[in-house]
Amino acid sequence: MAHPKRKTSKTRRDKRRTHYKAEMPALGVCSNCGSAVKLHTVCGECGYYRGKLAVEKEVTA
Ligand SMILES: [Zn+2]
């Protein structure tokens, strides 16, 4: 198998990793309640997805 000739130094390894970072999820606006929601995801506020009720909101009282 192909094999690296030299060990990657800590500096080189860490410099490579400077490009690793968490990406912000794509955000949209719920068409039912107007709150910010992750795209392709049921709204956490009202439980609607693409204009229809997908998940009934639990009523905690
Ligand atoms: Zn909503």
From TrEMBL:
Signal peptide: none annotated. It comes from the Bacteria. GO terms for cellular component: large ribosomal subunit. Coiled coil: none annotated. GO terms for biological process: translation. InterPro entries: Ribosomal_bL32, Ribosomal_bL32_bact, Ribosomal_zn-bd. One of its GO terms (molecular function) is structural constituent of ribosome. Keywords: Ribonucleoprotein, Ribosomal protein. Pfam families: Ribosomal_L32p. Belongs to the bacterial ribosomal protein bL32 family. PANTHER family: 50S RIBOSOMAL PROTEIN L32 (PTHR35534), LARGE RIBOSOMAL SUBUNIT PROTEIN BL32 (PTHR35534:SF1). HAMAP family: Ribosomal_bL32. This is Large ribosomal subunit protein bL32. It comes from Alkalitalea saponilacus.
